[in-house]
Amino acid sequence: MIELGLARVQKLLQSTPQTWKAIHVAGTNGKGSICAYLTAMLRANNITCAKFTSPHLIDRWDCISINDKAVPESVFRHYEDLVKQRNTDWQVDATEFELLTATAFEIFEAEKVQVGVVEVGLGGRLDATNVLKHKTVTVLSKIGLDHQFLLGDTLPDIALQKAGIMRPGVPCVADASNPQSVLDVFRTHGQEVGASLKVVTSESSPVVAALQEHLEPHQKQNLAVAHEAFRAAFPQYAHASDILISAARNISWPGRLQLVQIKSLTDREEHALLDGAHNPQSAEVLAGYVDRHLRGNSAAKPVTWVLAASQGKGLTEIMQLLIRSGDNVAAVEFGPVDGMPWVQPMKTSAILNSAASHNPALQHDSGTNLHDALQWATSTASGGPLVIAGSLYLVSDVLRLLRDTK
């Protein structure tokens, strides 16, 4: 169930102090990477921190981490049970995400962290995470069309919902690669609430300058935004560029342009590329990477895709960006999403129908059988590039399958 609003989560947390400072991150794309960069920078400066991102990657509790390590299942379930009992006793009728948010904030408090890096779940203004009490900086990443049925049909409408995380007197850092119409909304809203706005380009960060040869274009922008947010929150550490460069160099964000070895599931020797691209903006990033690194010259083999999608996603633009004539496509449905029963996979027939207009050489319907999709893709690719994409929930299924076959 998706139901935006703050009243229920405020009631759940009314007796829970928030003694930690918060860095609040909203946007359509790049939020997770920015949170990962921020966490690395905090840890590099020995600042005790927690992170809350969604959706979870493999297990429901891995969306909450302390000092960059997922909380143990036992700890998660203890505080989740506490929050659920409160929800029942007080007749709050909270949504699943509100219960999860309250659980995260309970754990942050219990662990006595100094800083909590918190990713917005959906939107911003009415997202459950917007009950944060002590924001030290807010962050607005790349904005795109997503969840229009809740956030609005235009980029400015969506941007205004995202900008709802701004607070009086709290600096806000925004991604300069956003369209001017989005940046105008950020500036106007910042002036209305009394929040200063810093619009950041990738050229403005010494950390990005030191690492630019190792970064994709979108990674440069996300790192620049994270670096500026860190400097706004902790100006006393702003001069320590070498420490921040080292931290950023070693960061990895699973499911984003991740090379994975699937030999334990198939006989493929080469790596496969795993990416959670699920909207046009993230698909554009993935397509650019594939064009630069996998398609290569005209003699390169076609790309073989394993694709899934959530119901309600518009695939036309995504397919246009990803699929080239002569590529191969296997469609699969991801499995049930723990704690998110409202998320349902798109039927494979719909995915293949959308892909067909781009003249793939071969198509395959794997239904709900991910192992079949990977085996077919391995055989069809025959050593050529293989990309698994279209949904973060598919990423989760792949990583879980790989973990369980070790």
UniProtKB/TrEMBL annotation:
One term of GO molecular function: metal ion binding
Gene3D superfamilies given in the database record: Mur ligase, C-terminal domain, Mur-like, catalytic domain
Signal peptide from the UniProt entry: none
Similarity remark: Belongs to the folylpolyglutamate synthase family.
Highest rank taxon of the organism: Eukaryota
Protein name per its UniProtKB record: Dihydrofolate synthetase
Alphabetic keyword roster: ATP-binding, Ligase, Magnesium, Metal-binding, Nucleotide-binding
GO CC field: cytosol; mitochondrion
